[in-house]
Amino acid sequence: MIRINLLGGERKNIKKTTFLDAGQRITIACSLILVVAVLGIGGWYWQLNDASTRVDQELAATEQERARLQSLLAKVRTFEQQRTQLQQRVALIEQLRSGQSIPVDGATVEDAQPVLRAVTENVLLEVQKTLEFFKAAASVDHIDRVVVSGGVSRIEGLRERLQERLQAPVEYFDPFKVVAWDAKKLGGTDASDVSATAAVAVGLALRQVGDR
Most buried in the list 53, 88, 158, 169, measured by CB within 10 Å? Predict the structure, then answer.
């Protein structure tokens, strides 16, 4: 009897066909490397795009803030110009008030009354506009107290009309409340006569070396 083992040959052939040759292994490895590289590049591009979007948003917010600050600066410059003009008018009015019986450049106190009323109305309007802007910017609905100083505050009737228009108490700023004042050493000048215009001078006098 002759036995022929056919199964053994088939198993050998099957084993031979299940293994990949070197070229196929290299192709698969290269494919895997390519896939990893593509995924890495995709992740890097997504991060770069996200960072670019954030930068664009920050730039837009910065531009909006710059425009807002420029608008505020323009309003401040306009207010400063108007304040300078008012101070010049007040200086003229003070000259008239200090010599009621003596004309100044051909004008009397009676002649200056229309100017006084116009200046007072302009000051009231500017103060009201400034406070309305402050309320809008600071989200404040109510003002408890208003303190005025400077030469403009000495215009007759200004404090009363300002108090009536703003519906809030209006007080004169007195820098000499906590500062000793010896009228004899200062030529007999009463503190109440200069308190309205001395705020800046008192503040500078109170500074010390090294203050900023």
Answer: 158
Please check the confidence at residue 186 and state whether its pLDDT lies above 80: no
pTM of the entire predicted model: 0.43
> Residue 165 domain-assigned?
yes
CA 206, 208, 211: angle at the middle one, nearest 5? 110
Q: Where residue 103 falls among pLDDT bands split at 50, 70, 90? A: low
User: What residues have CB less than 8 Å from 199, skipping those under 6 apart?
Assistant: 149, 150, 173, 175
- Measured CA to CA, the distance from residue 76 to residue 82 in angstroms comes to 10
Contacts of residue 156, Cβ cutoff 8 Å, sequence gap at least 6: 116
- Assigned token pair, 139: 């989200």
- Structurally, the chain folds into a number of domains equal to 1
10/88: higher pLDDT: 88
Tell me if 52 is assigned to some domain: yes
β-bridge partners, 146: 170
Q: Note down the domain range covering 136.
A: 46-173
Q: Residue 112's domain is classified under what CATH number?
A: 3.30.420
Q: Can you list the alpha helix ranges (DSSP code H) found in 19-143?
A: 22-98, 109-138
4, with CB counted inside 10 A (0-12, 13-18, 19+), is exposed
